[in-house]
C-alpha cells in the first residue's frame, strides 16, 4: 500500500465518469459488509430506485439483472478477497458494452483469477518524492522539520519509495 492506487483511481473516475450511463466508486472494501457494498453499487448507478438487498445471493441477482445492460464505470478500491468481486458480480462481461471496471488491489493474483484484460502496476516513488510525501504527512510541509531530515530520509529510503506503507 501507499503507492497511490486510490489517488490514481480517483483521478480516472473524476475525469471519465461523465462518459458513462452510470458510475460507482466503491472504497474501503476491506471494512465493509458485502450486502452494503452491493447496495451502494446499485444505488450509485440507479439512484432513487429501490436498492435494498437482503442477502449476498439476492444482491448478485439484482446487480446482474438491473446493471447487466448498462454502460458503467465502476471502481472497486482496495480489494483483498475474491468474495468481494463475486458479490459485486464483477466478471469480464458483467455490465453493458463499453463498461469499464477498475480494480485496485495489493494482490495481483486476484486479477489473474478474474482474467483481467490489463494490469497496470504503479512504480515506486523516487526517494526525493517519498521524502516529500512523508514530510507532508509527518510535518505538514514538503520537507522535514529541522533536526529530522536524516531520520526522515532514512525512513523514506527504508520504505523503498512507498512512504505511507
Automatic annotation (TrEMBL):
GO molecular function terms listed in the Swiss-Prot or TrEMBL record: ADP binding
Any Gene Ontology biological process: defense response
Family annotation (InterPro entries): Disease_R_plants (IPR044974), NB-ARC (IPR002182), P-loop_NTPase (IPR027417)
Organism: Malus baccata (Siberian crab apple)
Protein's recorded name: NBS-LRR-like protein
The NB-ARC domain, residue ranges: 1-142
Amino acid at each position: 500500500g501507499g503507492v497511490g492506487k486510490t489517488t490514481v483511481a480517483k483521478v480516472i473516475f473524476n475525469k471519465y465518469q461523465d462518459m458513462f450511463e452510470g458510475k460507482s466508486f466503491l472504497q474501503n472494501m476491506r471494512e465493509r459488509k458485502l450486502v452494503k457494498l452491493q447496495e451502494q453499487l446499485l444505488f450509485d448507478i440507479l439512484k432513487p430506485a429501490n436498492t435494498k438487498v437482503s442477502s449476498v445471493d439476492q444482491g448478485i441477482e439484482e446487480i446482474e439483472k438491473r446493471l447487466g445492460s448498462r454502460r458503467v464505470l465502476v471502481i472497486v478500491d482496495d480489494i483483498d478477497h475474491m468474495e468481494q468481486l463475486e458479490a459485486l458480480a464483477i466478471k469480464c462481461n458483467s455490465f453493458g458494452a463499453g463498461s469499464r471496471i477498475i480494480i485496485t488491489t495489493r494482490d495481483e493474483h486476484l486479477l489473474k483469477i478474474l482474467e483481467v484484460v490489463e494490469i497496470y502496476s504503479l512504480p515506486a516513488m523516487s526517494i526525493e518524492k517519498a521524502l516529500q510525501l512523508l514530510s507532508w504527512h509527518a510535518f505538514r510541509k514538503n520537507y522535514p522539520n529541522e533536526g529530522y531530515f536524516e531520520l526522515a530520509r532514512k525512513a523514506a529510503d527504508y520504505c523503498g519509495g512507498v512512504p505511507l506503507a
